[in-house]
Design brief:
The chain is α/β, with parallel strands linked by helices. It contains 15 helices and 12 strands. It has helices at about 30-40, 90-100, 110-120, 125-135, 140-150, 155-175, 185-205, 210-215, 230-240, 280-295, 315-320, 355-365, 380-400, 405-425, 430-435; strands at about 10-15, 20-30, 50-55, 60-70, 80-85, 105, 220-225, 255-260, 265-270, 300-305, 325-330, 345. A hairpin with an 8-residue loop joins strand 1 and strand 2.
């Protein structure tokens, strides 16, 4: 995007494309009020006052709408903004967008509304990233955590750490520049402040693993021989008939995936039965290779065998494949057996025996943390900046403990501040900025 495009008036559909009760077209920029004046049945709209009328294309009525006008800087983007709330039909919202574009706006790029909110200092960069997290949240818990970041929880903590470091740097620079008037700070004070800042950084990074799991979810693959009940378990966990179930070996030829919300997002994978046989055709062979790949990529593997037939050599070959993966061994078709080995986990997808216990076991094996205790949600970019800031601070701390020149210590402190400023966006490159907002949807 060139510099002139940054000041264009932009427009986009802000609601999902499809049939619905309401559709929203958003306009942002200096020409917003000028554009709506050309296409709306009423004129001289006042900011903050909702208006009801018709969108017109010439003299032709396109739809009956509600208009929400916002005057800068009191808007989401910090610019003049018009929101057109129309009926939610696909063609209705597209027709209105076309009229808006025809009258002076250009199509917004991905995330451009939120990007303008950041550039106009309505949001810091951590809040802007929280917008994307909130939209794409796969679970209600991650949505709640993302809302905290949108409210500025992470940004405020980063600013607090920045203030601690900046205060030390200011005293060091004052002592260096005005040695006759200001004494250099004591090394004990410097060490104490650095350790305090490092503890705060560690507090944020302690939630990094939980953050990544909440964002990316956990991949669980169901594997085993043909006809041991993999697809039945898949359907049972989903509580819907998603996979075809028959007593014919090799029914499942492809990998099926669905997402569950069990506090964290779980991607459940149903795989083709793994077997070595001359009866295996080309298509089933490809499916088996996909099964092995899915097991290799999974965070947790559910290995099923037929309890009525016992664990045989073919089962043991599959167990060997997943021996280095976190896995749960499940004896399915428990309703067909009378005697049971006490150390085995028995399940019946037919009678639902053992199902609740399996769900609890999956949760215990998948994650050993409490989502409610996740104080800060961070992404990989933010975690990388914090790690680099921590590295610079540790170098400064070591230098202070060795009583090195404070002029040299200040170099590491400046570096630490730059990494913190990257998190909030005080210092950011165009490439990083564009990469962040390219992951947004159009209209946000």
């Amino acid at each position: 995007m060139n510099i002139l495009q940054e000041f264009d008036t932009i427009a986009a559909i802000a609601t999902p494309i499809g049939t619905g009760g309401v559709g929203v077209i958003r306009i942002s920029g200096d020409k917003s009020f000028e554009i709506i004046d050309k296409i709306y049945s009423k004129h001289n709209l006042k900011a903050g006052i909702i208006s009801h009328g018709q969108i017109l294309d010439g003299e032709k009525i396109i739809d009956e709408v509600i208009i929400l006008p916002f005057k800068n800087p009191k808007s989401y983007t910090g610019e003049d903004v018009i929101e057109i709330h129309c009926h939610g039909g696909i063609n209705v919202v597209r027709n209105i967008l076309e009229i808006v574009l025809k009258n002076g706006a250009r199509m917004a790029e991905r995330g451009e509304f939120t990007k303008r909110a950041f550039l106009n200092k309505k949001l810091d960069l951590s809040q802007a990233e929280a917008v994307a997290d909130l939209i794409h949240a796969k679970t209600k818990d991650f949505a709640k955590q993302s809302a905290k970041n949108l409210a500025g929880v992470l940004g405020q903590k980063i600013k607090e750490i920045r203030t601690d470091i900046f205060n030390v740097l200011s005293k060091i620079i004052a002592g260096i520049d005005f040695p006759e008037d200001v004494a250099e700070p004591e090394y004990d004070y410097i060490i104490q402040e650095f350790e305090k800042a490092l503890n705060k950084i560690d507090t944020i990074l302690a939630s990094a693993n939980s953050s990544n799991i909440m964002r990316q979810g956990i991949k669980i693959a169901i594997v085993g021989k043909p006809n041991v009940g993999k697809s039945s378990l898949f359907n049972t966990l989903l509580n819907v008939e998603r996979a075809i179930v028959t007593d014919i070996a090799g029914t499942t030829r492809d990998v099926l995936t669905e997402t569950l919300d069990w506090d964290v997002a779980i991607t459940l994978v149903d795989t083709a039965g793994i077997r070595e046989s001359e009866e295996v055709g080309k298509v089933e062979e490809i499916g088996i290779e996909f099964s092995k790949q899915s097991a290799d990529e999974a965070d947790l593997v559910l290995f099923l065998y037929d309890a009525s037939k016992g664990l045989n050599d073919e089962d043991k070959i599959i167990l060997e494949l997943i021996k280095n993966k976190k896995h749960i061994v499940i004896a399915n078709k428990a309703d067909l057996v009378e005697t049971r080995e006490p150390e085995n986990f028995y399940l019946s997808t037919k009678t639902k025996e053992g199902l609740d216990e399996l769900k609890n076991k999956i949760k215990q094996e998948s994650y050993n943390f409490s989502l409610e205790d996740t104080e800060f949600v961070t992404n990989n970019r933010q975690q990388d900046c914090l790690e680099k800031c921590k590295e610079s601070l540790i170098q400064a701390l070591d230098a202070a403990k060795n009583y090195e020149l404070q002029d040299l210590i200040s170099i590491d402190l400046k570096s630490a501040l730059l990494f913190l400023d990257e998190i909030t966006g005080e210092v950011i490159t165009d490439d990083i900025l564009n990469n962040i907002f390219d992951h947004f949807c159009i209209g946000k």
